[in-house]
Amino acid sequence: MTGGPEVTVLVVTWRARDLLEQCLRALREQTVGHRLLVVDNASTDGTAALLRGFGEARILRLDRNRGFAGGVAAGLAEVDTELVALLNDDAVPAPGWLGALLDAAPGAAAVTSRLLLADGTLNNAGVVLRADGYGADRALGEPDGPPYDRPAEVFGFSGGAALLRIAAVRAVGGFP
């Protein structure tokens, strides 16, 4: 990539030091170059000390816990790349995770990941819109495999692992 990475991985955390360490180590193994921004929601569990060991990460430490959406909003204000990948602090992405999202991204405002639980069942394969107007995790609790192992258009993305085009996020008013 000319001019450096075109994508920033944004991880929001709050008192999840042990989980965050696994996440950040997995991000070091990605096959695609990226910037890393960790938004710390005023953790008091040693997260700040842990983050000193990840010199590649830019750290935005908030003065209070603003929750996931507030942390993402604060982080997005600092992102200067075309794309941002949101990743939960308890996620452990496979080495090709970011590359696969980027491969699927041309022309898309957002691309969501297939999220697996520790037991191998699906946590999320996109978000569906229910008849009552609420969103729900597509495939929650289902076994991994067809049809969820193939690309599909879905109603929405899980903020736990998704790639977003910054211009599209800003065009709809950000991430309130």
Topology record:
Elements: E1 7-13, H1 17-28, E2 35-40, H2 47-52, E3 57-61, H3 67-76, E4 83-88, H4 97-104, E5 110-112, E6 115-116, E7 122-124, E8 127-129, E9 135-137, E10 161-165, H5 166-171
Parallel strand pairs: 1-2, 1-4, 2-3
Antiparallel strand pairs: 4-10, 5-10, 6-7, 8-9
Describe the model.
- A hairpin with a 5-residue loop joins strand 8 (127-129) and strand 9 (135-137).
- This protein has five helices and ten strands.
- The protein has helices at 17-28, 47-52, 67-76, 97-104, 166-171; strands spanning 7-13, 35-40, 57-61, 83-88, 110-112, 115-116, 122-124, 127-129, 135-137, 161-165.
- The chain has a six-stranded mixed sheet with strand order 3-2-1-4-10-5, with helices on both faces. Strands 6-7 form a two-stranded antiparallel ribbon. Strands 8-9 form a two-stranded antiparallel ribbon.
- The mean pLDDT is 94.
- The chain is globular, with a radius of gyration of 16 Å.
- With 176 residues, it is α/β, with parallel strands linked by helices.
Average pLDDT over all residues: 94
Q: How is the main sheet built? A: 6 strands, mixed
Q: Strand pairing plus helix content: what structural class?
A: alpha/beta
Reading the helices and strands in chain order gives EHEHEHEHEEEEEEH
Please tally the helical runs, counting DSSP H or I stretches of 4 or more residues. 5
Shape: globular
